[in-house]
Design goal:
This protein is mainly beta and 235 residues long. The chain contains 1 helix and 13 strands.
Length: 235
């Protein structure tokens, strides 16, 4: 009981001090706490949730593969274009341009007809800089190893939760990468929050972590659909 009382007295004392500090802050000139520089640049947001903001590079607009090339890792493109989406068919593809720190928006969909279980079901991967794989998988009522389910940094970082939608429905990823620090928002839910990627993941194009690299999509695991792909490189 004495320990509880002592703790309560300490809390009251700290609260009183903080209150006194707040009263002192009220008497100061408010302008002294105003910061005017630097001024954040103006970015025009998209008119809908699928529109890219004005500072983003649209990597795929649903019309062509002009920003993409066959992967240096695995041969031919052979991907299909239909109904404003690209569909995995053949080898992997990668962006012609290289990127480092960035924000990436992408929407993806696994087949509505379910085949297989675990890693056999709607499997692909998005590689940042060609080196760090964010897993794409049908993880709706489909148990697999936790560091290999949708939204994981493959075999390295485990998602906090599993917000997967049913197969055949569009899913969204919004990813921020700064160095090796990554934040992943899947279907509006933060599933990885500013965690460090330990190192390159399996299937990486190379190991040159100090250099920019392409956005690379695996193309040898199944017919995944992708659309509305836009990236904002760090300034």
């Amino acid at each position: 009981m004495k320990k509880i009382c002592a703790f309560a007295i300490t809390c009251l004392f700290v609260t009183s001090v903080l209150h006194a500090q707040d009263k002192g802050a009220e008497n100061r000139d408010a302008k002294l706490t105003e910061v005017w520089s630097p001024e954040p640049s103006v970015v025009t947001p998209g008119t809908t949730s699928t529109d890219a903001p004005s500072d983003a590079i649209v990597l795929f607009n649903g019309k062509d593969f002009s920003n993409w090339q066959p992967s240096s890792h695995k041969g031919n493109v052979g991907w299909k274009l239909d109904n404003n989406a690209m569909t995995v068919a053949g080898g992997g593809i990668e962006t012609k341009q290289s990127f480092g720190d960035c924000q990436l928006h992408i929407e993806w969909r696994t087949p509505s007809v379910v085949k297989g279980n675990g890693q056999e079901r709607g499997n692909s991967g998005i590689f940042f800089m060609g080196r760090y794989e964010l897993q794409v998988l049908d993880s709706y009522k489909n148990r697999t190893y936790s560091n290999g389910q949708a939204g994981s940094v493959y075999k390295q970082l485990i998602p906090l939760v599993n917000p997967s939608r049913p197969p055949g429905e569009w899913q969204t990823y919004d990813i921020t990468l700064v160095g090796r620090m990554v934040t992943v928002v899947a279907n509006g839910k933060t599933i990885i929050c500013n965690q460090e990627i330990p190192g390159i993941t399996g299937g990486a194009l190379d190991s040159k972590e100090d250099e920019p690299g392409p956005i690379y999509f695996q193309g040898d695991h199944g017919p995944i659909d992708l659309r509305n792909i836009a990236i904002t490189p760090a300034k």
